[in-house]
Amino acid sequence: MIFDTHAHYDDEQFDADREALLSQMKENGIERIADIGASMASSKEALLLSEKYDFIYAVVGVHPSEVEELNDDKLEELRIMSRKPKCVAIGEIGLDYHWPEPSRELQQHWFSRQLSLAREEHKPVVIHSREAAEDTLRIMKEQKAEEIGGVVHCFSYSKEIARICADMGFYIGVGGVITFKNGKKLKETVADLPLDKILLETDCPYLAPEPYRGKRNSSLFLPYVVEAIADIKGISKEEVMDVTYNNALRFYGL
Ligand code: NI
Known about the structure:
The protein has helices at 18-22, 40-52, 72-82, 104-121, 133-142, 159-167, 184-192, 222-233, 237-252, and strands at 2-7, 30-36, 56-60, 87-96, 125-130, 150-153, 171-174, 198-200. With 254 residues, the protein is of the alpha/beta class. Helix 8 (222-233) packs across helix 9.
């Protein structure tokens, strides 16, 4: 059984065949899925999906690239959304310095405030962090993130930084990049990290694993990620699936 801990089935790339695709999940071993909001609108869509499908859970939050839409009222709206029974975490939230906008100050402000929201609502967080390791760790420490708990999804930093996150009680999200030829850094991280710190994720429709790199991703491709992790760690695919499935249940409090 596989738990896809990070998917975006609310994305328009699934509009044409969303129902047909989701109806194939269980028979292919994809037992549960967390649909992750990235804006106010997609957070609402994630909740709708979680109400429609018993095996889908919702995560609500505003991605660093979308924080210009946030204000005090919207944050309160997020709080109310986070109290829905199938909302299991706050995210994806964080810092993304790859693009010049929104400003770093604005991203940091809303990252901190959404971390506070998670603490107040007793939910873990799903963190997106790109080219911003230092500030991400600083804000996590300031906000005592070790008391909140969470995952650093689509982990792209060094194994040393993964260890710091793991020591704060965080999980590391691993997806299609682990199968890429240029995924050496992530392979080193996975080799170094105990399996009980790893969560499986797709980030679909993005980041399809080899041999589908560049195509639309879905949870159905996760067996390629499982195989890559099993090879790196020299263990069976069953063990990778069992341990990461239980990690995901523990992480999302299910
Ligand atoms: Ni994502």
